[in-house]
Each structure stands twice: as C-alpha cells, then as structure tokens.
Specification:
The complex is a heterodimer. Chain A is α/β, with parallel strands linked by helices. Chain A is built from 20 helices and 11 strands. The radius of gyration of chain A is 22 Å and the shape is globular. The chains are: A alpha/beta, B mainly alpha.
Chain lengths: 434, 300
C-alpha cells in the first residue's frame, strides 16, 4: 500500500538513494503485542530496507476494520493479527497469502502441531502463531489449605462445585469461583463451549441441526448458572477475561478457569497480589475429557491485497521465530515470552526455571484437538468455537441469552429454547438447513 | 468523549435579574435568599454530575494500573507512569496534528459551502426549500455503517483511504446538514430590509453576504463553526474505519489503548485525557461565543 506513495520517488532511488519499503501491521493491544512493538527497532536495524507502521486497535474494532478492508480489497494492511477462528475461513476465501515457502531457519516443524493445524487450510499454513493458549484452572493454595482441600490431578466439575462451597467467603469479599459471564462469542461462549463439550454436548449434529435444547446443554448451562449464583462474585454477567484477571489477582476469587495466558500475569508479583499462593490444575472435566480446554492463538498473516508480501513475510517470520523468543526472554524476562507456539520454548532451561506453569500449558495445548472436541461427532472444527463465518453472530446471540439466564431474567430452559430458535433461523438463512 | 458544555449554573447576570424581578412578587427577603442558594446549589450539582465522568477519567490517568481497578478512592499517590507509557507507545503529536487539520479543515469547507446555501434558502426561498432542508436533515438519520462499504470502495478507487483529505471530505458531508440548518435559522432572524438597503446602495450578492450578512450574524456563524469542530474532533466511526497509520486522528489514538487482555484503564484514561484536552480548552475559551451564538435570536 505504502509502495504506491513510494513509486513516485523511484527517480530518487535510481539516483542512488536507498528507500525503505514500509509495511503496515494491524494488531491488538495486549502485553505481547506491546513488547513486539517496542522491539521494532531490533527488526529495523537487522532489515534496514523495511520500515514498520503500526495500527493498534481494540479486538472487535480490528476485526471489523480488517474484514472491511479485505472484503473490498482495500490493501491498507500488509500484516494482520488474526485468530484461529478467522485463519481457515479467510484462507478458504482466498484472502490470505499461503505461507508455503518459509525459510529453512524458520523451523516450521518446531511450531506446536495443534496450533499449526489450527492456522492451516487444506494442509497449507496461512498464518504464523505469535502466541497460543489453552485454558486451565487457577486456584488459591492458601484457601485450599485452610479448608483442608487437596487438589486432584484432574479435577471434575462436581469437585469444583464442592470446593467452591467450602472456600466461598462473601463477607471477606472472596468468591468461591470466578468464571466468564460477559456475553460474546469470544467471552462467555468460549468458556461455556468447553463446559458443554465436557458435559457431552455439541453445537451442531452432523446435519448442522443446532443442539442447544439438548439435555447436555441444559445440564451444563444449569450447572454453570447454579454454580455462579451460589458461589460466584456479584455481577458475574459483566465479567470477562480482564475483569476476572483483575479480581483473581486482587485475591477476590478462590478458583478461576480461564486462558493459560493469565498464568504469566498471575505469577508476576508486580501485577498480582496472589503470586505466592497461586496453584494451577488442568481445566475440570465432567462426562468426557474431550474439548474440556480450548485452543486459541493470535497469529500474523498477510492479506492477498498487500503490495509488499515479501517484506511482510520477512517481518512475520522474524516476529514468530525462535530468535525473537530469545530476544524477548533476554530483554523482558522469560515469563514475558510469547507462550504456546514452539517446542523449543518449552525446552529452554531459562523458561522452565522461571515459568513453573510451562509444562501445564504445553500439555493443555498439545492435548486440545479442534478436530475432535466433542463426545458425539460434529461437522465442524474448533473447540470453543465453530469454524463457520456465521458463528460470530450465533455465538454472541446465544451468549446474550445465557447471560440473561445468569442474571435471572429468564430461566435456563427459556434461554436455551430461544437460543435454539435463533440459531435455527440463522442456519436456515445461511443455507445449512432446509 | 464529551466537551465543555455551558454550565447550567446561574450566571451573576441571571441571578441579579432574578433578584431584581423578585420584589414584584412581594416575597420576604429571607425566603428569596434561600431560593437563590438552592438554585445555585442545584446548578452546581448538575454541573458536577455532568463533569464527573471527565473528572474521574482525569484522576484515573494519574493512578497506577492496579489502583485504577481497585475499589474507587479519591486518596491515591499520583503518578505520571501512564502518561509516560502512553507517550512511549504512540506519537501523540502526530495524531493531534491530524485531528486539528481534519476538524478545522472540514469546518472551513462546511462553512464555505454552508453560508451561500443557507443564504439562498433564507432569503431566496423556493417552494422546494423546506423539502430540501428536511431531506438534508434526513441524511443524518441513516446509520453510517450502512454506507461504510460503498464509501470504502469509493475511497479505495480514488486513493483517499488513510488520507486527511478523505477525512475532511467525509466530515464536511457529515456536518453539512447541521451547519446549513443552524446558519439558516440564524440568517432567517436577520431583517431582510438590512440586506435590501445594501442592495439599494449597489452591493453585489457577494458583497451583501461578506459585508452585511456575515458581520451581522457572526456569533451564529462562530457557534456553528465551533459545533462543527467539536463534532469532527469527536467523530470515531469514520476515523477508525477510513484511516490506518498516516491520517489517524486522536480517536484512533484512544482506541489503540483499549485492550482485550491485561490492565489498561489507567493508560486508556491518560490517553483520553490527552486527546480531549485541546478541544476542552478550546471549548472553554470559546464558551461565551458558543452560548451567545446558540441563544442568538432566541429572545425577540
């Protein structure tokens, strides 16, 4: 895109003046991306012919902005930050440049397989993972000790309910358990999809019929609503990842099941008051261990409308490469390295020593299988989402009805019945159902 | 984002006139004092209520991230950490310059088009004038997202994406209905005879507008311009969707500090404070002008 503006200057270049090719990187504002931005100079000094322009936006704004630009072939961006949900869908539409000629020193086989698969379409990689996460349980070891509870190797949701009752202490401002309640396909529905999976449910049957009124959904959602009403914090329906992270780090939650990427923040005494009392365990299970923990990654991709795909590939290979991880480890500390992408990160001694949760995260990511995450077979891929374009609106709509059940506006049965009807309508309109 | 609003508290002038008028109803002086105090208190109360979110944002900007999410308290040790972090992440002045250029550029263009339009509608109306005015206003009822894709395509084809010129055009079109309507109302209040007298003395239409109409309705034109500047400064939908790195104004700057993960309230507040500071000060300085313009011709 910037090249258009550079072209009139070609005369100067011909006169012997070197011109850097500038690429525009669209990204979200989170710690890992901020670190990447601050290390831009290291990239630019290694590649003086490439200049980076940053466009940082809020996640939902970014998604809307990128979709508009790509769908209209606007060519405003050369590097996009997208997730596991968008990568295969956008690749199928021909919106992304295939990444099949990465340099040998990139060590593509070092990328964790589930993460790599999640960013591929028809066996071709379309985005490089910047960081990846699964979900796990965090708990307060001091509260567990006081209550005489011993954490099991693989907790079940029934146990979690009992433990939450034992440590729930609203008078001292400690909720037994904190879970996501804020509506949104990437907020409460990310968590609830894993809960439904482990309770034996699924979003759709093999014929794409919505299954929201099935007994497994009823049971899972009723369990969630009861658990939150009995032992959750007040106003849980407005809590997303950030709100729960803030509460847990201030000692307001006994347990929390959420993204593994929270581990680094909770273990950092500068950000967390409970760094010394932090315990972790695998995400709880119920009927089946399948799909009990999710898989997500933020990845860097190149839109097919980019004018500088080669420079863009050089940049994304740098930002997701082994050397970059070393660079962050040395300059920012090893707990700050982008987790979940490479085997070599987990083999690194520094990382193993400073991030005691590393093994859990690796195991959680490696055992998350987006192609087989439900007890019964499904036609879709994805653990905490359904890999179809319609899912954003379906997920958010269902999320809103479940949030209404959580606040007591409707019953779980009514909420799921209305969610089922709305999803059926959407699927009919989209042509999945007759 | 909000900007300076005329404070609803009683001005000295209105309080005085209230007191002057009071003896007419023959109420005891003590009761009048109480009423005056109550009204003053109410005025201050409402002003504080309107200003409170801005005040809270400014205070949050001076807190640490941990303090920003802790239970609300007015007692904290102020820190500039968030401002330093915000400035290290993004070049404020680049965004601010874009905001200033776009807000004033679009206002100037809107006035250049709006003054002749409002003049013709106010002084030379046809039977379609009312309908045209209503149609102009109706364009404001369309949700902007409805025309996002066509405008995006037009901008892409004409190379206006991520340019200040592009934003100036969009903001001008966005504010033009309001500008024309406001100017039309102000112009209509001007006695036609004054312009006719000018014409009798041999003034051309251009001279009539520049030497008679504009000086006589200056408060109205000024307040229209100020409103247009404020609306352009605060506009977020088009600026987020039509710019990326070169022409991004302060609204995009604020948006870049909202985060899906981690703590960001203090930094977001610091960025927002810096983004609204220029327009807040501008609004403050021109408050008198704005109030005069907005109430211009209200009492005949």
């Amino acid at each position: 895109m910037k090249l258009k503006r550079v072209i009139p200057l070609a005369g100067l270049a011909a006169a012997g003046v070197a011109h850097a090719e500038s690429i525009t990187v669209a990204t979200v504002n989170n710690n890992d991306m901020v670190i990447m931005q601050s290390l831009t100079e290291a990239f630019e000094s290694a590649h003086p012919d490439i200049e980076i322009d940053w466009v940082v936006l809020e996640e939902n704004v970014l998604r809307q902005r990128l979709t508009t630009d790509i769908a209209t072939d606007g060519g405003q961006f050369d590097v996009l930050t997208i997730g596991t949900y968008e990568a295969p869908i956008w690749a199928e539409r021909g919106w992304l440049v295939p990444l099949d000629d990465l340099p040998d020193d990139y060590a593509v086989d070092d990328l964790l397989k589930p993460v790599r698969d999640g960013l591929s379409h028809d066996g071709t990689l379309y985005a490089l993972p910047f960081y990846a996460e699964s979900s796990m349980m965090f708990y307060r070891t001091d509260l567990f000790e006081e209550a005489g509870i011993e954490m099991s190797d693989q907790p079940t949701w029934q146990e979690v309910r009992e433990w939450a009752g034992a440590i729930h202490d609203p008078e001292n401002g400690v909720a037994g358990i904190c879970l996501r309640g804020k509506p949104g396909w990437g907020e409460n529905m990310a968590f609830l999809s894993t809960l439904v999976n482990t309770f034996g449910g699924r979003w759709f049957d093999e014929e794409w019929n919505p299954q929201l009124d099935s007994p497994a959904w009823q049971e899972a959602v009723q369990f969630y609503v009861d658990l939150m009403n009995d032992y959750g914090p007040a106003g849980a329906s407005s809590n997303g990842f950030n709100e729960n992270l803030a509460m847990f780090s201030r000692g307001k939650c006994g347990m929390w099941v959420d993204a593994t990427s929270a581990a680094g923040k909770l273990f950092n005494p500068d950000e967390s008051e409970v760094a010394d009392e932090l315990g972790f365990a695998p995400a709880p299970i119920a009927e089946t261990p399948k799909g009990a923990h999710w898989l997500w990654s933020w990845a860097l991709a190149i839109p097919s409308s980019s004018d500088s795909p080669e420079a863009a590939q050089t940049f994304i290979a740098w930002a997701t490469g082994q050397d970059y991880i070393e660079l962050v480890g040395e300059s920012e500390g090893w707990t700050s390295v982008p987790p979940g992408t490479r085997e070599s990160t987990y083999e690194n001694e520094h990382y193993q020593r400073e991030a005691p949760f590393a093994g859990f995260v690796l195991e959680a990511i490696n055992s998350a299988d987006p192609t087989d995450s439900t007890l019964e077979p499904t036609p879709y891929q994805g653990v905490q989402f359904v890999g179809i374009p319609e899912f954003q609106s379906i997920g958010t709509q269902v999320g809103q009805t479940i949030a209404a059940a959580l606040t007591g506006e409707t019953s779980v049965e009514q909420a799921l019945a209305s969610a089922q009807r709305a999803t059926e309508r959407t699927m009919q309109r989209a042509g999945y159902l007759d | 984002m909000t900007t300076a609003k005329p404070k609803p508290s009683l001005t000295a002038e209105s309080q005085a006139s209230f007191a002057d008028a009071a003896p007419a109803i023959d109420a005891p002086q003590g009761l009048l004092d109480v009423r005056r105090w109550l009204l003053t208190l109410l005025g201050w109360g409402i002003a504080l209520l309107i200003f409170f979110p801005i005040l809270w944002m400014v205070l949050t900007g001076f807190q640490t991230e941990a303090a920003a999410i802790a239970d609300p308290s007015l007692l904290f040790s102020p820190t500039l950490d968030s401002y330093i972090a915000v400035q290290a992440r993004a070049d404020y002045f680049k965004f601010a310059l874009n905001s200033v250029t776009v807000a004033f550029g679009s206002t100037l263009l809107a006035l250049l088009i709006g003054i002749p339009s409002a003049y013709s509608m106010a002084f030379l109306p046809t039977r379609r004038t009312k309908g045209t005015l209503l149609w102009m206003l109706s364009t404001k009822m369309l949700p902007p997202v409805g025309v996002l894709v066509p405008i995006y395509l037009l901008f892409r084809t004409t190379g206006l994406l991520d340019t200040r010129t592009g934003l100036v055009i969009v903001y001008t079109l966005m504010n033009l209905p309001i500008v024309v309507w406001m100017l039309y109302t102000f112009f209509k209040d001007l006695p036609r005879d004054i312009l006719e007298a000018g014409r009798m003395d041999g003034a051309s239409t251009f001279q009539e507008v520049v030497y008679l109409l504009m000086p006589l309705t200056l408060p109205g034109i000024a307040s229209t311009g100020l409103l247009s500047v404020i609306l352009s400064w605060n506009e977020a939908f088009w600026s987020l969707n039509l710019t990326s790195s070169n022409a991004a104004p302060l609204t995009a700057y604020i948006a870049s500090f909202s985060s899906p993960e981690g703590l960001f309230w203090a930094k977001l507040s610091a960025a927002s404070t810096m983004a609204i500071a220029p327009i807040l000060i501008f609004g403050w300085l021109t408050q008198k002008q704005m109030v005069r313009g907005l109430t211009f011709g209200a009492v005949k």
